[in-house]
Write a structure and sequence with these properties.
By secondary structure, the protein is of the alpha/beta class. It folds into 2 domains: 192 residues, 3-Layer(aba) Sandwich (Rossmann fold), CATH 3.40.50; 83 residues, Alpha-Beta Plaits, CATH 3.30.70. The protein contains 10 helices and 9 strands. The strands form 3 sheets. The protein has a 5-stranded parallel sheet with strand order 2-1-3-4-5, sandwiched between helices. The chain has a two-stranded antiparallel sheet with strand order 6-9. Strands 7-8 form a two-stranded antiparallel sheet. β1, α2 and β2 form a beta-alpha-beta unit. The longest helix is centred in the middle third of the chain and has 23 residues. The protein is globular and about 65 Å long.
Length: 296
């Protein structure tokens, strides 16, 4: 009996030492808050697992430095049409050298289905010399306001249950990262084929057209400039007062829906000038409201 106990203790000691030596950078892109919520939860759990961990949006200046100093990188992004968002694709391609000889895990957030959403970046980074540990998909509430077939249902019971399931799954994902070995979800021919045939083939063809399909309601817009200030690709600009539309679009939209969901006048939409009936409220705001209410 003594032998197996010593082996187990030695294994635990090795795992503890490994975790102490892990410097993990969680880097993500989030349009409306879903991916940010998951990324911060992952970073929190990795830190609780005795690993040194940072968490940054790719829009933040400290993100690249954190990745350069890390020996393990976790990449996260939402999936659009079974594709990596344009802003994240460009970020990865510009910084591929950073991933060489590093352990990398990827997670993708989605509303319904993406096929090989996380594996897309996994394959990209493996070609750059990264060692891929695990790939995972996490379902989050619908944030695409204006879709009649899938209306936004803020803080609904169904969404709460969905978030609870995702929170539980992040624990397994973190355990695999700390162990250095995990499941590679979507990294197979069936998932790749379904992702391509059901969404990516069509989306890839029309992505630039979609990027130019953002609409502004001139009567509702107050020219507050919130959309201009918060656009992750600096795609939007306040137009001259003499112009017919209040905001100009450079065609670099990454389709994140941030401006549409944040506009205080609901003056922004895709494809039509019809104002959205409701806007998505990020999960963290619901939690903040609940905590505030409980403390009253």
């Amino acid at each position: 009996m003594a032998g197996p106990c010593r082996d187990f203790d030695e294994t635990l000691a090795i795992m503890r030492d490994r975790r102490k030596n892990m410097n993990i950078a969680v880097c993500y892109f989030s349009g409306t808050g879903n991916t940010a919520y998951v990324a911060k939860m992952i970073a929190k759990r990795l830190s609780e697992g005795s690993a040194q961990c940072s968490c940054n949006s790719i829009e933040e200046p400290g993100c690249l430095e954190a990745m350069q100093n890390a020996n393990t990188i976790v990449i996260g992004y939402p999936v659009y049409g079974s594709c990596i968002p344009r802003i994240m694709r460009e970020f990865l391609d510009k910084n591929l050298e950073i991933f060489k000889n590093k352990s990398v895990s990827v997670f993708a957030t989605q509303f319904l289905f993406s096929g090989d959403g996380a594996a897309l970046a996994g394959r990209r980074l493996k070609r750059a010399g990264a060692s891929i540990i695990c790939l995972r998909h996490f379902r989050m509430p619908n944030n695409l306001c204006g879709l009649r077939i899938y209306p936004v249902r803020n803080n609904s019971i169904k969404d709460k249950r969905l978030i609870q399931k995702t929170e539980k799954k992040t624990g397994n994902f973190c355990a695999e990262i700390l162990a250095g070995k995990g499941r590679r979800q979507g990294n197979n021919l069936i998932s790749t084929g379904l992702g391509f045939l059901l969404q990516r083939a069509l989306f890839s063809i029309g992505e630039q057209q979609y990027a130019e399909a953002i609409r502004f309601n001139a009567e509702a817009c107050t020219r507050c400039g919130l959309c201009v200030r918060t656009c992750p690709t600096a795609n939007l600009h306040l137009a001259e007062p003499s112009e017919s539309l209040p905001i100009s679009n450079d065609g670099r939209c990454t389709l994140c829906y941030r401006c549409i969901n944040n506009c205080p006048e609901r003056a922004i939409s895709f494809f039509s000038n019809r104002q959205p009936e409701s806007q998505y409220i990020p999960v963290w705001k619901h939690n903040a409201l609940r905590i505030k209410t409980n403390n009253v």
